Amino acid sequence: MLIYIIYTFLGQMIVGLPADEREELLKMVAQRASAAGEMHEGVSSPREVYDFQLTAKTGIEAAAGAGMTPCMTEKGAMAMPAKMKIEKKDGMKDSTCEGSDKATMKLMEKMEKYRGKIAKNTMKLARAQRMLAVADILIAQGVDAQVPASLYTVHCVSSSYFCKQTIQTRCKALTRYTILADPGVFDGYSGCGNSA
Amino acid sequence: MVAEIVPDIAELRMMPRDKIELKRLKFLEKEAKYLRKVAEYQMDLAEKTKDLEKLQSVLVMA
């Protein structure tokens, strides 16, 4: 800010000088500035300040070119924040959309994962149920018992449906082979109307 | 699945009765375990489905 003020003051001084003196002064200032190793963002030399003063451009482009803050009119002052506000709103909307998209994707991935796990465990459940039914038959009839063909195949994907199927199969098997060594083992089938 | 279960049944046939009973108990355990797992995952899936519906309704409102 201080440097800006100095440069502005310097520029105003330079405008009032004759051409040769102005050139000399500008050279001297430039030399001193470079000797001091003074680096500044925006206005890099007194020449730029001078050029800026001469053209007297107060627009945003001119200010940006000279690296100075332009003097704002009322309209400009009102327009800038409004523009920034709109940009900010758009940015927020974009980020919100991105966030919700991400969340949706994440949820859908999780749902897919759970579906896979359900399918996998349903298959395992079906297998355990079939083996259980086979074991029941073998216990009831002996190791030479004939296992129904239905137990060799998978009937469905739905676990609830398969549970129903397997229980029915087990009930049928028990109805057919009523030799039960230990009635307590088959407590689970009392609902099927089979009692030892 | 048929090919998978046939050797298991053959293996079961070769076992003595007490071992078959033991195996039966193991299958019972497995049945309970997988039933539980399926139920748990179904609950999780229902929860996630609900969350997704909620999120989508919020998006529609926005």
Supply the key terms.
heterodimer; A: mainly alpha; 6 helices; 0% strand; rod-shaped; B: 62 residues; mainly alpha
Secondary structure elements and pairings:
The complex is a heterodimer of chains A (about 200) and B (about 60).
Chain A: H1 2-15, H2 19-35, H3 46-55, H4 60-66, H5 74-141, H6 159-176
Chain B: H1 2-13, H2 17-61
Quick rundown:
The complex is a heterodimer of chains A (196) and B (62). Chain A is mainly alpha-helical and 196 residues long.
Main sheet characteristics of chain A: none
> What is the strand tally of chain A?
0
Count of DSSP-assigned helices of chain A: 6
C-alpha Rg of chain B (nearest Å) = 21 Å
Encode the helix/strand succession of chain B as letters.
HH
- Which percent range describes the beta-strand content of chain B? under 5%
Shape of chain A: rod-shaped
Uncertain segments of chain B are none
What proportion strand of chain A?
A: under 5%
Assembly annotation: heterodimer
Structural class assignment of chain B: mainly alpha
What's the number of structural domains of chain B? 1
Computed Rg of chain A: 45 Å
Largest pleated sheet of chain B: none
Element pattern of chain A in H and E: HHHHHH
Which descriptor suits the 3D outline of chain B?
rod-shaped
Structural class of chain A: mainly alpha
In round numbers, the mean pLDDT of chain A is 65
SS elements, strand count of chain B = 0
